[in-house]
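Lesson 9: reading folded outputs for more than one chain in a single document. The general rule is that every protein is listed as its sequence immediately followed by its structure tokens, and records are never interleaved. Here is the first one.
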Amino acid sequence: MALARVQVDRVARFVAGTLLLMPALVAFALTLWAPALRTLALSLQAAPLSRPAHFAGLANYARMAADPTFATALEHSLLVALVRVVALALPAAVAALCSRASQAGRHGARLALGVAAALSAPVALALLWRLAGQQVPSLQGLDLADRTLALRSYLGLEAFYFLGLGGALTATALLLARTVHTRRALFLLAAITAVASALGSFTLPFTATGGGPAEATLTLPIYAFRTAFQHLRLGQAAAQASVPLLACTALGLAFGAWSDWLRLRLVPAGREGAYEPPHRAREREPRSTRSGAGKGGVETEPPGTPRISTKDLVLESLGALCGKGLLALYLAPFLLAYLWSMGQAFYPVGRPLPRAAEDLMPGLSLLNGTLVPILTTLCVGLPLAYLAALSLSLLRPFGRRGSRAVYLALLAAGLAPPVAVGIGLYDGARAAGLYNSPLAPALPFVASAPALYLFMLYFDGRVPLLAKAIRAGQPPLTAFFQLAFGPSLQVAALAGAVTLLIGAQSLLWQLLVLAQRDLMPLSLRLAVLQGGLAGERGALGAGCWLVLTVWGAATILAWALLEQLVLRRFEVVAERFCRRQAPGVE
């Protein structure tokens, strides 16, 4: 009887889990897996964009290996990856110092980090960097038009931009970690993400230099894009894009495997038990709750409570003070860039701001740039990721190992370079007749790997609660629904915000499907029309200020709401490290 019940339970888990997972599998297959595989297939064909393709074997790879330009682009992409990893040291130091502050101090630090994320629109920063190198005498060493200085200046731009959004997300994640071991593990995950994002970076180099001058800043994504859509050789471009595609897929698998080995969890803040050492839980309690009344009404510490010496208090105060100073230095360049763009918009004569607004059409462009990503993410991307995480974490229809393997495959697809996915998606959309469809701009937002990852962290943290409720006699279905639809709306808000922060400023697919239409979003319109605006004094700087202001206002508002309603209520724990630190804690 018991064996039959177990078998029925397994069948029910398989059926329910598969039904919940299937929509996400279809979405990931259509928008990520199939385009990536199509790119790999195109790399084995001679596929001119205007003529039928035919099989060419490894000819494209042989031509690529003998091409010195490809070697140059690969070298530059690796340099960008190195620069981004090194740049992570600053937000990591900020998080390490600010983590010593009080709860209010950490709350303020996370709010301040939103300024860096808000002022990191890649198109605006790229154009402001170029303008500064041309117009500010003390910054002439940043001139992107000088071949001898272009690579060094471009690497500086990559570090500056990545410190904005990438640094803010990294420091925020590190501040949510409860232990030093967890912060170190999260830093390694951030480094893996930095390398993968560098190998797929397109928007920044496309806007700033386009790979020039004289290929001095050419990277793999720009080279593949040129080959495909300027020289119209889709097969060669697919071979060039397959190199970062395979590398980023391997990095995605490493990211998921490392996170799974650590058993990272997103749990409510202050939760005690198997996820944190007992003394850390005791330190967060107010004094009135962890101390009793002694003689004469004087409160005394319970036995075994560790005492904090004056030296430790002084060191913690100095660390918190240094953290505030380093945070101010971290934010200063972004604030200066915004103020300088404001000067470009309002100081020169000739009304540069109205001229920029006339060309950029901010009202219509803002509507086009926000409506499709937000609606697609809210109505499709988030629900599919939520159901997939619910299936793979709580139900596990294919068993623990099988479900984790499916999860790793989904997660690795999310780190695929946009140019590699874009080439296959472009070819597939043309073949299916969807290229000119109104649905085409929404395709990159249908499958959200960041949302899936955050939902998995959250539901993995609730698995012990599900087992505990079932052991206590609660019906499994009731316990499942209570845990599945608890405070998950807060995690959904976090997942949606991270998805839009990462994907909304990516220009490659928008450039392919919207550049010839009147539906261009604000950032794409600024990138496409930069030549005309540069001809009038201050107009290009005014356009940059407009983009930074619109993007920054929306990001600051969303960041503040997330901090108040979500981030301060959750923390990231590595269950593996916590169990090692506190053996025997249930």
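And here is the second record, again sequence then tokens.
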Amino acid sequence: MNDRAEPGGWTPGGDKGQGRALGDPDDVAAVRRANADLYEAIERGDLDLMERVWAQPDEAADIICVHPGWMPLRGRADVLRSWALIMANTTYIQFVLTEDNIGVRGDVAVLSCEENILTGAEDSNAFVATGRIAATNAFVRTESGWRLWLHHSSPIISDDEDEDVEEP
């Protein structure tokens, strides 16, 4: 990661879609790794890893998860149940994360990013769908490291009309 700080304390990111970061470089790297663990758990369908990603009830005031189009889920049990349901019904998913921005203040960190998603069906080698999601993940520092306590994701709706307009 680039250690040059911009005005306001932001540090430009490196390659692979990394955006700006504010905070101690070691904390920023640890938060980025915790975020990667979240998406690795989803891609692998690994509920054990997903359980380790999320904070315990005594580590965060209120664990919250908002999946695209869902009502907010509160509490560790409901959040993990939702991920188990998603994993059970997803045969293939891959995330390419871009535009990440990280801010770390004390024992709290917020990471926003774009999730560029590829999904496929089990009975087909063919590509099925893509999508772009704006995500915000908030982490809390615990004795075990950085743990997720809030995940909020919403679809990015592109305006095709803007893309089709020709410049004069």
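What the second record shows: Residues 1-16 have pLDDT under 50 and may be disordered.
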